[in-house]
Amino acid sequence: MQKLLNKYSNFIKGILIFIILMFLIWWVIPMFIYNNGLEQLSMSDKMDFYLKYCIFYKRGLAGFRKNDVFNLKQIYNNDPIGIKLFNKIKNNYKHGIAVVDLYVRKFYLIGNPTIVKYVLKNSPNMFGPSTFKHIFMGQIMPKNIGVTKCPFSDTKICKKYRKKRDMNEELFRTNKEIDFYDIMHSSICNNITYKLKNHHDFKTLALNSMADLYFGDNNERLQNLLENMFDYVLTDSDMSLKTLFNKVTTNREPIKRVANYIRSNNTYNSIFSRFKDYEKLTKHKFDLSNELPHWIGPYLLMIEFFIPVLIHVITKRKDVYDKIKKEMNSGILNLKSKRSYIHYVIVEFFRLFNIISVHPARISQDDIKWNGIIFPKNAELVINLNTLLRDETVFEKPDHFIPERWEDKPLELQHISFGFGTQRCPSINFSPLLFKIIINNLFTKFDYPLNPLQYPDTKVPQWIDGFRLTF
């Protein structure tokens, strides 16, 4: 009996020693590692960061998983978009930067909006795609523009990246007026034949209008291919054995099958017909399977998740609701205009409910010094776009939904929700127009009455679960 007790006692001692060692290695020792004058993230903030970003990742990167979105709201209702954590870094750490040292790699959490802008404006030539981005997105689209690495340069962007960027900008008319408005409008209008009431209705609209707008056709085979592709993308960015199997086998067949469909079928007058025309014009063939996830993944997410959230916000605010209805009934509303009230509503919505707000990350391509701050080569820079979108020095009452704030703002500032520099999302003209077309169609065809439970003021929740909203 004594021998058994001694055996268990030694086992427990071993466990305690292991825990103490891990505590020292993981939490204590990094506090004494020199980081060019920057502070290590405190133990409590570090735990908050790890847990929060695991939940963000579990929620989904290229698309949202319904149950994980619900869990995010339940677990982190006090800081669902991470803005409190990054504001704490901005206010409590030197230069608004905190370091997490993992020995083999340093992570720099940046809460200072000025530095966030600097990093974004100098990507990808100075700050390339992060290791996490390669891990999380590399199997879905390993040669996509978002993970294309350029050699370090403090001025130039490499030709390999520039070719992909030019193609994206031409396709979505980033710096030009949308010249396929009629196709966008008909793809939405023709597929809104009844009042959309729940997540299933909005997803159906997304898939059907996507088929018309992007592919120029809609059929059962295409819908099956799209469903399989989206299922694959959601699985690949999950945390499961199936995900691990996907990453080990690098089986991208569901994406390739959609790409092959585009290549082998007539896409008529659509976005993908324009893509093919661009290839012929430039005499350069792109790997379409690496572009698909970031072209049509966000389209699905915007309609099935964020459009219900927007309707919810509008109907919970009588002042916003009345102004939109009045403008729609005026008979002079131009949806392509960037100086209309509905446009300001959409821009303000993108600022507060942003599809890419949490996950941007970069890696320093060389030792980079800026205003006395040194980012060593291969440092992982973790940023949260909300530090810009909710910057109180730029936006008064940054957590409040105030469309009127954009009336006197320059048009360029409207693009802040899409990032900065060369890596800014190319859909700065496409996405707002898509939202305006959908909202105008829904509110003029059907009755979406005011919610009897109005928000008490202009402040809105940081996170709303679009999957569980019903009308």
Set down the secondary structure blueprint.
Elements: H1 2-28, E1 39-40, H2 43-59, H3 66-75, H4 83-92, E2 97-101, E3 106-110, H5 113-121, E4 127-129, H6 131-137, H7 159-172, H8 181-189, H9 199-215, H10 220-236, H11 241-249, H12 253-264, H13 271-282, H14 292-315, H15 318-328, H16 341-352, E5 361-364, E6 368-370, E7 373-375, E8 380-383, H17 386-389, H18 430-445
Parallel strand pairs: 1-2, 3-8
Antiparallel strand pairs: 2-3, 4-5, 5-8, 6-7
Q: What do these coordinates show?
A:
The protein is of the alpha/beta class and 471 residues long. The protein has one domain (39-468): Cytochrome p450 (Orthogonal Bundle). The protein contains 18 helices and eight strands. The chain has helices at residues 2-28, 43-59, 66-75, 83-92, 113-121, 131-137, 159-172, 181-189, 199-215, 220-236, 241-249, 253-264, 271-282, 292-315, 318-328, 341-352, 386-389, 430-445; strands spanning 39-40, 97-101, 106-110, 127-129, 361-364, 368-370, 373-375, 380-383. The strands form two sheets. Strands 1-2-3-8-5-4 form a six-stranded mixed sheet. Strands 6-7 form a two-stranded antiparallel sheet. Helix 8 runs antiparallel to helix 9 (199-215) and helix 9 (199-215) crosses helix 14 (292-315).
